[in-house]
Amino acid sequence: MSEVSxxxxxxxxxxxxxxxxxxxxxxxxxxxxxxxxxxxxxxLGGFGALCALPSGYQEPILVAGTDGVGTKLKxxxxxxxxxxxxxxxxxxxxxxxxVCGAEPLFFLDYYGTGKLDVDVASDVIExxxxxxxxxxxxxxxxxxxxxxxxxxxxxxxxxxFCVGVVEKSKIITGESIEPGDQLIGLASNGVHSNGxxxxxxxxxxxxxxxxxxxxxxxxxxxxxxxTRIYVDSIKALQQTVPIKGMAxxxxxGLTENLPRVMPESTCAHIQLDSWxxxxxxxxxxxxxxxxxxxxxxxxxxxxxxVLAVAPADLNAAMACLQVHGEQCVHIxxxxxxxxxxxxxxxxxxxxxxxx
Length: 355
Prior knowledge:
Low-confidence stretches: none
CATH architecture of the largest domain: Alpha-Beta Complex
Number of strands: 14
CATH class of the largest domain: Alpha Beta
Structural class: alpha+beta
Shape: globular
Mean pLDDT: 94
Strand order of the largest sheet: 10-12-7-13-11-14
CATH topology of the largest domain: Phosphoribosyl-aminoimidazole Synthetase, Chain A, domain 2
Strand content: 15-25%
Helix content: 25-40%
CATH superfamily of the largest domain: PurM-like C-terminal domain
């Protein structure tokens, strides 16, 4: 039996370095400051974060959302590229808030790891700040947890929390969607942040090296392209035409996300040949030999957000979105259904080339 040392034991010796945490806070303060809004009170590092409601709302309703980035995180960790995964974290949260018409107000993050690497954590949070600037919301706080023994060396985990605000009379619910309404698809940046467990399985089965060349970059870089943030274009569209409903196309794809905002006894008829599938998703589909319906309920297949508008507003909506930098396409329409449960019906096929 080994002797028990009588020397004092410190928290650092147990695996938690408080000084490293303090260094991280100091390093990320400029990132947080770059995202500030006039409603934010106080500074980063307090026990709680304070934020006033924006002026101009008659009946402001707060909207909250939380999300992560799934196993896309593994690609960032394995490649040592940490500066964009934070954008994904923000995008997954703020795009969800947009669906009900909310303006993202503030964001908080959770970063958990076994041993804090200040450089890695700083890169991640720099990306979070970048995402917040794109979304116009303030990074007002978060939590960095050093949890020795819980994570494998080099691993970390992320979660994001966002609060937005919407005028009560302008909440978008999808309840007004009716047969004849037109569906607009906003292009994605690629895979976004869903389906990466299947992505990893495809790469393994097809023996694809993430570091191999792909479209003037590498396969890994293409897979790490951050999720598109749609805040600016959607805010502009809200001032142009009424949006009847929106769906953020995340896990579950078009198949499961679009019906979430549709009324009973309606069916979304989608023309699959109406848009170009991004090259990275074409590669995964063909190399993985994935069935089309499986693709459509796992990946976004090139459509990151879907909007429903009245037929008379279709052209004006698409023109507005294009002016504000979106690649958008008329992908289908809402029709009446004999089934009570909302559904999606696909026509034609995805345009995939053998790669």
